[in-house]
Amino acid sequence: MSRLSALPASLRPETSGLGPLNFRNFGDWGLLTNDWGRWLMLDKNDFSRVLSGDVKAGEPLHQQLAQRGFLREAMNFPELAASYQKLTSFRLISGPSLHMIVVTLRCNQKCLYCHSSVVDPSRTDTDMDLETAKRTVDFIFATPNPALCIEFQGGEPLLNWPVVKFVVQYAKAKAKEQNRRLLLALVNNFTLMTDDKLQFLIDHGVSICTSLDGPADLHNKNRPFLGGGEAQPKVVGWVRRIMDLASTDDLRKPYLPSALMTTTRFSLGRGKEIVDLYRDLGMEQIFLRPLSPIGYAKRVWHEIGYEPEDFLRFYAETLDYILELNRKNPDEIMERFTLVLLTKILKGEDPGFMDLRWPSGAVLGALAYNYDGRIFVSDEGRMVDHQGDPIFQVGDVARDSWQDVLDHPTARACAAASTLEAQPMCAQCAYKPWCGVEPVFHYEMQRSIAGRMPDSPWCRVHMGEFDIVMQRLRDPSSRAVFDRWLERDLCHWQENDPVLVPGQPIPEALR
Amino acid sequence: MRKSIKKSRKILKKNPRARKIRPGGARASDVCVVLDARRDGVDEIYSAAYLMIDRAYVLLEGDPKKSMRVTLRPRDVRTKASLTAVRSDFMSELAAQRVRWSITRNNQSIREYIAENALSLAAEFGARSEVAEPSAAAEQLTPDQRAEIEKLIAEVETEIKAMNEQKPATDPKAAVAPWEAGRLPGGENPA
Questions:
Q1: pLDDT score of A500 more than 60
Q2: Is B98 in Cβ contact with A94 (below 8 Å)?
Q3: For chain A, is the Cβ count within 10 Å smaller at the N or the C terminus?
């Protein structure tokens, strides 16, 4: 079966009147899209008529096609250019907004899929020292983006708490001095959280994110604690506690904890239980994330991995459950990745999701800083280095400037390799306006930073997710839920200072 | 040369399927399609062939200005049905590629024009927005701010030193201990 979808055998194409477009044939209906993010769903008959040049002026369909820039004879150039600029605004911002600092490689958990290249808690030699921390912050503030987000990662960042504290305070002082917008986010497993630390984070406006894979048995299996013991109750306990604080207004909504779940083979078929746990905790969103076969996960893929189609089944089933809940109660939980796609498709805006843009977020959108000060195109690129391959290193805070990093051959190669116009299959894909590819993923999977999309698991998962969302957009009741999600998401940004959640999109207001 | 011929004969004896290898590497059990590059289009042929690589090994030969031969070898078990399916898939991809490339060629100048306009808009937008100038920053701190930062560094250094002195080197945060053992210091566990 064609990945890009084939055309009906009976079609007699006539393309001379068509504007630039890509199409996708779903059998009983078809999808047209163009570079500027305009799209149109058509029933089978109209789809064939459009591609056969049979739509006549004066027909309502002709008008619909013209309004969206699908007909050469009726193109509103200024309007289409404005749409294009809005959808791809990230390409025109100078410099990365997301800066991930790995303050230590140490961790007290041994997650089955962890690609963060963690080491034993005794390895204090993998802690970032103060000098490197200061240099890292100086480097970040020498990059030109007016809005910066510093995200603490690890390892478990709370194992190097003094450096976290220092970076928070030093970065805030610098942001004030330079009049830059600064967001701070901490990704942690909550096992080492204390009241004092929490208070510091709240006082300094650091948003908190954790990992929560689902019910205790599932979470504990995916994320075992070194030395035994159950990790999940600890996470749930802290999330509840912070949620309680929020309900008494001690904590502003932007700093509510958020959680990310990673789907392993053990999660498949348990979407409902996972969603119900998030609902029980009062979480506004859940992010159904597929497992990346990178690093440690690659080695144990035969135990915890699955085919893209398995994940897509899980995603579709779980999304349908969430949609059903939302039909009954409009304030129910939302699915984050769907929201990312909807922001692109329905609002024509880029939601700042680094994994789904082109050129990719590598260097242009994000940078990762190792504990020793070395700079990588992404956290995944840093992990590849940890396995002995420094291909994705683009600098060192001790010696390189932002210009050195931007000009680094690896930065250029990643940008070129992830440009969908230059990808033979992506250039013709109906999802090109909203999609993206990840050089590190494809280097790990296919030994090519450009990748081979016809048999790329990345492409199979993302194309499948787009298909699932598009199919649901055809259903009026699902569409109504999706529209409500976009309204709620917008309200969220308007009611509060924009917030950045680790691993999740950067709000447009911050870019 | 003689050695190489002897070796080939040995291979043929051991593997009868190898007898079917034809000039150009194709086997009788492969699908071969010969196309007129001028009529079918080189871009179209390359693109259709590329889209087949998830299902088949693909070999392209010939003169891109005249005639090209596409050899497809299914990745899975080769049966008559799978060979027919691969041929049919390729021809279907080729038909879709003719449409896709036709649209692309007709509209290249329009896409370029709109991209140029979008860039102009962005330049206008960029000129209006405040973009921070790269700065070495630390050198630009006021004396008061510098003093504050130095104080902060001193505090954190003291804290790190105290932390390292308190904890045993092998497990500085008692992190490997299970919570059930109750070995974490007071306040480390949530209520």
A1: no
A2: no
A3: N
